[in-house]
Structure prediction request, 352 residues.
Amino acid sequence: MTLTTVTDQAAWDALAQSLPGAHILQSWAWGEVKSRWGWRAERLAWADGRASAQVLTRTAAGGLIRYLYIPRGPLLDWGDTALRDEVLADLEALARRRGAIALKIDPDVALKLGPFGAEADQAAGQATLAALTDRGWRLSPEQVQFRNTVLLDVGRDPEVVLADMKQKMRYNVRLATRKGVVVRAGGLADLATLAALYAETAARDGFLIRPPAYYADVWRTLMAVGQAQPLIAEVEGEAVAAVVLFHFGPTAWYFYGMSRAAHRDRMPNHLLQWEAIRWAHAQGLKTYDLWGAPDVFDEHDRMWGVWRFKEGFNGHVHHSLGAWDFAPAAWRYDLFTTALPRIRAWLRRGAG
Prediction:
């Protein structure tokens, strides 16, 4: 094994940010949050510094059930086939030694990338897909993160980005300003406002959310290390919409978006995204990840309404590998995935 454990936060973040595919879910702070919500975080690096993996472990039934997850990792140059195979072999050995039911990875590796309708195959992603299949990995029945997303090049001048948007998006950005929407940077004092906005959004749009304490923990922890920035849209001093941006390495992510029903006709969400683009550019970042797009691009997909909004930014669609599982014992994995909905409900109750 060429793996070593990293125990220093600064050293870990420096390594993770230097590697291809650097992702906020591989940051030290994210691991710290998850360690307070039922997981154990372990940071592993290959001795030559060419790869790393933050491994989250969850156990149940007195340790009889052990599940490993590397969110948006491991980090490495997936086009380096020798390195790729070494990392996969080491992770397979780790899963066997730990007696894991499964080890899940979902690296941020593109299968296809490009303008919608003209996405081009990505050689590294396609080769990795074949390698995972050949090695016995399985496409996971539980895709924790979005498989597809939309990426914007924010290394360009923001006015160029704006000019490249679809006409209706540009119109709505300018309309929001004319209608009196003002966007300001948020801080720790706004956590209660953000939580209330998010809860209202979930109730209106019909999706489940975690307890408010979880989001307060995420936002506070990442803000404390300078890796999160809320932006809040107000109308006459009243908060009507917000986003919480994460950033790590050269990328910013639009992880959390929320809004009230009031004043939606003033297009606060459009102006928020424009200000997020301007903020990311001012930070010297290169990519803005709009975090989520349909699995299948048709009106029956649950993300279709979200896509219709994000399509207006005229970014590139990123089709990823998705999450893949390695199961040391196939029968245990099959039993686990069959019972997964009930086991997950039990684990969630145990974690509060």
Observations:
- The CA atoms of residues 62 and 347 lie 12 Å apart.
- The longest helix spans residues 81-98.
